[in-house]
Structure formats: C-alpha cells, structure tokens
Amino acid sequence: MSKRADLTQGSVIKILTDLTIPMIFGILGIVAFNLADTYFVGKLGTSEMAALTFTFPVVLVLNSITLGLGVGASAVISKAVGEKNHALIKRLSTDSLSLGILFAIIAMIFGYLTITPLFTALGANGEALQHIKSYMYVWYAGVPFIVIPMIGNSAIRALGDTKTPSYVMMISAGLNIIFDPIMIFGIGFIPGFGVKGAAIATVCSRSLTFLVAFYILAFREHVIDLKLVSIKTILKSWGQILFIGLPTAFSKIILPIGLGIITKLIASYGQDVIAGYGIATRIEYFALTLINALTAVIPVYIGQNFGAKKYERIYQGIHVSEYFSIASGIFIYGMLFFSAPFLAKLFSEQKTVQEMVVLYLRIVPLGYTVQGIHMVINGSLNALHQPLKAAIMNIIQMFVIYVPLSVLLSPKLGIKSIFYILIISYGCTALLGHWFIKAKIKVLKKLQLESIS
User: Fold this and answer.
1) Distance in angstroms (rounded) separating the CA atoms of residues 265 and 418
2) For residue 445, what are the domain limits?
3) For residue 211, what pLDDT is reported?
4) What is the per-residue pLDDT across 108-167, written as a single tens digit (0 to 9) for each?
5) Which is nearest to 138 in space by CA: 228, 75, 204, 80?
6) Is 202 part of a structural domain of the chain?
7) Residue 215 near residue 153 (C-beta atoms within 8 A)
C-alpha cells in the first residue's frame, strides 16, 4: 500500500513535525553506523583511527555527489507530486536510478585508480597509508550499494514518506553494529580483518538498503518503469535532475574538499590531535541529528508546495525551521559542553586525543544555531530550483571565509582559531541565505499575482 503524503494542506508545524520525527531515527541510524566504525576501529589503535579519519573526506566526496543527485531527484519528483503528475513522477524516479548506476560505475573505476596518490597528497604515509588501502579497496567495491539506496531513499521521501527510509537506515545501522566487531576483531572461524573489516561490514549492511529501496519504489509505489524508452526521453529526465543535482553536488563536494584541507592543517599538530579531531567530528554528527533531520525533510515539504504554487506555506515552513534551528542549537551546545570529557574518554584512552575532543566540543557547537539555518535555507533553495544560489552559499562559507582564514590565522593563533572561524563562516552565509529566500518568495508571489490579474 502506498504511503504518499500530501504536504500542501494542513498545519505547517504539524506536517514538519510529522516528517521530521521519523527522520530523526533515520539520521540516528546513519550516525550510529559511523560511530560504530569509529568506536571499534579506535580500539585497534591510534594509527588505525588516524587512517579512518583520512578516509573521511574522500568518502564524503562520493557521498556528496550522490546526495547532490538525490537532491536533484527529490526536487523534481516532489514538484511533480505537488502538480499531481503521476506519469512524470514515474519517469523521473526510474531515470534517477539509472543515473545513479552510471555514476556508481564511474566512481568505482576512478576510485581504484587514485587511492595511493590521493591519500598521499592528503598527508597519509607509512602504516596509516597501508590501513587506508585495505579499507578503500573494499569500500569502493561496495559503491553501488551506497549510491543507489541514497538516491532511492530521496525519491521515496519526495513522495512524502519519511518513515520507510528511516526504518531501513536504522536496520542497516543495527547490522553494521553487529558486523563491525566480527569483521574487525574476528570470532570463531571468522578471522579479524582490522580496518578492512570495517569496510566489509559497511558493504554488507548497505546491501540491505539497496534491495529495500528498489522494492519499495518498484512494487509498493509503482514508480519504476522498466519498459524501453528513447535515449532522448532519458536524457531529458537526466537534464532536469542534473540541473539541480550538478550544482548541488558541486557545492556539497566543497565540504569534503575543504575538510580535506582542514584535516591536513590539523594533522600538522600531530597524530593524536588528528585522531581526536576525527572522533569529535563523528560525535558532532550525532549531536546534529535534530537539525539534519529537519534539513532532510524541508526540501520535500517545499518541493510539493512549490509544485502546488502555495508560496505563503513555503515562507511559513522556512520561518518555523529557522526558529527550530536556533532553539535546538542552544540546547545541543549546553549538552555537549558538560558531556565533552565523558565522551572523549569513551572513545580514547590517550590524554592528548581526549583534550582535542573536549576542545572541539566546547567551541564549535556555539555555531550550531547559524549552521542549522544555513543548512535549512540551502536545502530550501535547491527545492525551489535555485541550485546556483545554494552553491554560492557553500562556496562563500568554505572557500571565501573558512579555509582561507584558517590557513592564514591558525599558524599565529593556534588550532582554536580554526573552530571560531567555522562559526563565523556559518553566521555570514546564514544571513546571506535568508536574504536569497526572501527575495525568491517575493518574486514568486509577484508572478502569481500577475498571472491572476
């Protein structure tokens, strides 16, 4: 039975709450997935943890491109839902998956060819580089099981169903938590594979989401059409998806590329420091669960109302989301400030690593309020088919403010300055994004009034 939801009617607050709550559990599933890898690999030693930290920006690049394609698919599909055009929904859903398959093949080939030179350029060497190779050789083999479900889940959410993708992500995380210690340390006749075992566990767990996403789209929602169509038809769908997906993917790639530069900058302070930074950033993903959940669903809400031309509801939804980001950001900062020492000891026994974790968690969360607004508005601009403005926000945040000022000032002011600059960068782009949204809604309302008159 279909679980599509009409988001163009009813209370804005209730709809966003109903969409966000299931997504919270889905985000927790993703966070638990990553934290499990961090926790168990951390037990192997500092070298192994540093290796996993080095893989993080590279994994984020591929995930960012996939998320960009997913955002493009979600934007055009949710708009078609608002327009109640089922034929278009079916075409776009099918072609978004075929686009994902093509990208997965390209990513696998390119990934295998660049492992050694890329990670060497990031600063990895010696034992850490060997751990990285063993991890990435397996991880790249599982790329299709990562790419297709991410795009498929975006399509499912575009239909108004945030519950099913969330349940699937939670189950996948549960399997990863079970597989991680088995594959990393071994049990019975199964040998321990070390860092490589974390990648094996990831691929096995993600395979479930691959199967479930396709089943839901094909057999429950009936939006997958396997009939042969012309190349021209497929290219037209790809064009609509990529119009939003490419700028979005580019802007999302900015994050891991920028983080790669920041990671190399922090690595200059020592292996224990970079290990602590890796732990802190993974804890951060858990801390941002509420904001990330809202960010994931607000484009679906906006997309459907955009298709239905209900612009006032779009404006209301964005305001509610901004207030939520402020309130939740303040709450999260208070929680992390006091729990930072406990969390640091939970993930490492090294004093220098612990100090780095505490330092990060007592500074960076100060900016979660503006970071949340930045994220909400960025997703909203994509849903309104304004991907270039969303990309501009990310470019300014990362490469105009955060990275240049960090490179310039951290040698003189120390590692703390990197964290304070991050807060400033999000504050500036949150203000810019708010102005972008306000101007776009004003134009849409004006065009609507002109068409009526």
Assistant:
1) 9
2) 12-452
3) 85
4) 999 889 888 888 887 878 788 888 888 999 999 989 888 888 888 888 888 888 888 888
5) 204
6) yes
7) no
